[in-house]
Amino acid sequence: VSAEPAIFVVDDDAAVGRALASAGKVLGHPVRAFASAAEFLAAYSDEPGCLVLDIRMPGMTGLELQRKLADDGASIPIVMISGHADVRIAVEAMTLGAVTLLEKPFRLDELLASIRKALERDAVARADRQKSADADQRLAALTLKEREVLELIAAGKTNREMADALGLSVRAVEDRRARLMKKVNAGSVAELVKLLAGRMNPS
Amino acid sequence: VSYRRFATRPAVLALGLVAVVFGIDLQLPLGVAAAVPYTFAVLLALAAKPRWFGPVVAALCMVLTVAKMEIVPERGTTEMWKVLVNRGLALFAIGMTTLLGLLRRSAEAILRQREADLVRMSRLAVAGELATVLAHELNQPLAAVCLQADVAAHLASGVDSPELKSALGEVTEQARRAAEIVRTIRRTVRRSEPERVLVDLNDAVRVVARLLDWKARRTGVSVHLRLADAPLVTYGDRVQIEQVIFNLLQNAIEAIVAREAGPRTVEIATMIGGDVAFVRVRDTGVGLTDTERVFEQFYTTKPDGMGLGLAIGRAAAESHSGRLWARRLTDGAEFTFELPVYREEKA
User: What pLDDT sits at residue A42?
Assistant: First the structure.
């Protein structure tokens, strides 16, 4: 889904919700506001964007929603906002991976900077996941023999050493290597390594 | 009028009584134990304002008791040893009266101190709670105002109007100032860090029951304690824990007073269940219409209530990793205060 990243806002106070929504519109991204954690959970399904979340809410609190999203494996970056930043709450929010914790009232530029950072983090995370999915796909297309060569390249072996190890001529190794590079669409060993590294990223 | 008030002061009465007893004692032969009524004078003197007055009057009485033997040596047919025993008994009675009176006075002082502590703490807790609520409730609209003013300023950035910009700047500035004031107030009255010590819940219940004894008696409510045999030790702030129990018992008594007819009993039980200890307060009062809303801030059914007692109680329970909840009974209400039991090996 390559939809435009949205700013999700969850605050039980309607006035604050509206203010956050108009602040979000300044950035030119679509803003979707919810009055409770439950409403948000019902509507959200891993769309790109970021979440601006009030900590103190009746029903499910901001921290509980944050924990639930983490448990469900949702990676949406969160900008926490709170009326009074209790140290204990701040520590908990940050350990759970919040981008920032803003204490109300905050300035527009503080909020926008945090949202930008969160959106960027989301974009990077999504690109990483896309890249590693691509890498998986391309590497899956390799034959068993090509994969042997790949492992040896990754281990830093020269063509000569590979030929010895596989009991092939240097010529045959070079052929296989060329086919392999073409299949995974890598122009150089550096690119190949990058591809492998992307795949090893935890996603 | 002022003369009568002066004459009925305990100190004046005590000295008058000493004079009367001494006068009568002088009229009687040595064999009569006429010095024993000095004990009443001592009791009166102990009720006087200056703390030294009781012991001083007691000493005076003792001196007079002995002095009589010198002033009136006439002892008729009574043997000397009987005279000495009589006088000695009078001295003993005066001494014991003084001692018991002083002990009672210090016990009362401790009780009064505790009561004063509780009242002060609950006033602080109420102020803190009010400030917290105010801070939150005002902070929300202020945050919205600040943000909307910033957005407006941003939208107006293309417009060439310095007046508009300065007006919007002023809105943000003043809203932020208001928020800062609210925050400062909240910080100032924020409850101080609790002092954690080992607290025996049985002790806490006994203290609170004694503090509210007068109220229960005046309203004709009988309070029954059913305490666990072993001490129920928890780790926490003694005054805060007592305050929670105090609120529960006071509510229980008031719930009974609000109901005209029916049984008038409160039962406070303490018990242990695994890792937690409970204080359960049951009353035969008007009962509850909503067992959750009673814990909300500013929810009250009392005509002169603030609606903060139980909200503060629940916050205090939770800050001790405990719980506080209510249950409806067929006849009245039940509140349970749960706290973790302190275990040696955990420390």
Answer: 93
| pLDDT per position as a tens digit, B229-246 | 999 999 998 888 998 999
**Cβ <8 Å between B183 and A84:** yes
pTM: 0.56
- Least Cα distance to B45 among B35, B63, B26, B60 occurs for B60
Q: Give the chain B residue nearest A23 (alpha carbons).
A: B151
Please report where in the chains the tokens 């695994």 appear, as a residue.
Answer: B274
| Residue from B132, B247, B107 nearest B182 by CA | B132
Select the residue from B151, B176, B296 to test the A interface by mutation, using most A Cβ atoms within 10 A: B151
**CB < 8 Å to A108, chain B:** 147, 150-151, 153-154
Whether the CB of B139 is below 8 Å from some CB of chain A: the reply is yes
> How many whole angstroms separate alpha carbon B331 and alpha carbon B221?
15
A29 to chain B, minimum CA–CA distance in Å?
A: 15
Residues 6+ apart with CB under 8 A from A142: A150, A180, A183, A184
Distant-in-sequence, close-in-space partners of B95: CB < 8 Å, separation ≥ 6: B58, B62
> In this complex, is the C-beta atom of A13 within 8 Å of any C-beta atom belonging to chain B?
yes
ipTM: 0.71
pLDDT above 80: residue A116: yes
For residue B262, the model assigns a pLDDT of 86
Strands (E), chain B: 197-200, 222-226, 233-236, 265-273, 276-283, 323-329, 332-340
- Check if A88 contacts B (Cβ < 8 Å): no
User: For residue A15, which residues of chain B lie inside 8 Å, CB to CB?
Assistant: 140-141, 144
pLDDT, tens only, B290-318: 888 889 888 888 877 778 889 889 988 98
Could you tell me which chain B residue has the CA closest to the CA of A26? B151
Nearest of B237, B250, B265, B236 to residue B208 by alpha carbon:
B250
Instruction: Give the orientation angle of helix B53-71 with respect to helix B10-27, to 10 degrees.
Output: 10
